[in-house]
Amino acid sequence: MKVGDFLSPRVIVIELGAEKKREVLEELCAALVRADPSLNPERMVAILLDREKLGSTGVGEGVAIPHGKMECLDRLIACFGRSSKGVEFEAVDKKPVHLFFLLFAPENSAGIHLKALAKISRLLKRASVRQELLSGRSPEALYGILTREDSEAQTLQG
Fold first, then answer.
1. Any idea what the CATH number is for the domain that residue 83 is in?
2. How many folded domains does the chain comprise?
3. What domain range includes position 13?
4. What are phi and psi of 98, to 5 degrees?
5. In Å, how far are 10, 67, 120, 153 from 20, measured between CA atoms?
6. Rg (CA), the chain
7. Looking at per-residue confidence, does 132 or 151 come out higher?
8. Could you say which of 57, 66, 67, 142 is catalytic?
9. Rounded to two decimals, what is the model's pTM?
């Protein structure tokens, strides 16, 4: 599985306008709905907010990976968003979040869901990658950073 399999430049938000957790989730879901109008943004946000009640998906170091499962999906979908000013997201380190990788998986797909979360976590763990993502100037540039890092990680593991 590669990031390019479930992410495309057209669902990358170069600068989020949101200032609160719910607004970030709404804005990211709206990006996914623009790419696939059959999706229900209200349902998506509700699923994400329910997941957040279990514990924040703000994993620290300025990163959050909100995620959930939806019965209407037949594949993994994702989007990426960036906030230069940062958003209070109840992250584990109590710091504002700047990089958001939102992920939805089909309802009955525990394996692929967990693999994708692990892959995203590994990619965003490196400070150099996070810094590059904060300074990229276009959705295509951010996509390029994510897919390049993913390919390099695959090469090292293979």
1. 3.40.930.10
2. 1
3. 3-157
4. -115, -25
5. 23, 17, 23, 33
6. 14
7. 132
8. 67
9. 0.93
Q: Is 98 a catalytic residue?
A: no
Does residue 80 contact residue 103 with C-beta atoms inside 8 Å?
Answer: no
CA dist list (Å): 118 to 30, 84, 139:
24, 25, 23
Q: At what angle do helices 41-54 and 21-35 cross, to 10 degrees?
A: 140
Please state, in angstroms and rounded to a whole number, the distance separating the CA atoms of residues 142 and 8.
Answer: 10
pLDDT digits (tens, 9 = 90+) for 2-47: 899 999 999 999 999 999 999 999 999 999 999 999 999 999 999 9
Q: Which of helix, strand or coil describes residue 100?
A: strand
Tokens (6 digits) for 102: 């939102």
Cα separation, 64 vs 66, in Å, equals 6
Please write the tens of the pLDDT for every residue from 43-97: 999 999 999 999 999 999 999 999 999 998 999 999 999 999 999 999 999 999 9
Residue 106 has pLDDT above 70, yes or no: yes
What is the sign, positive or negative, of the torsion defined by CA atoms of 27, 52, 36, 144?
positive
Distance set, CA 19 to CA 8, 83, 89, 149 (Å): 24, 9, 10, 29
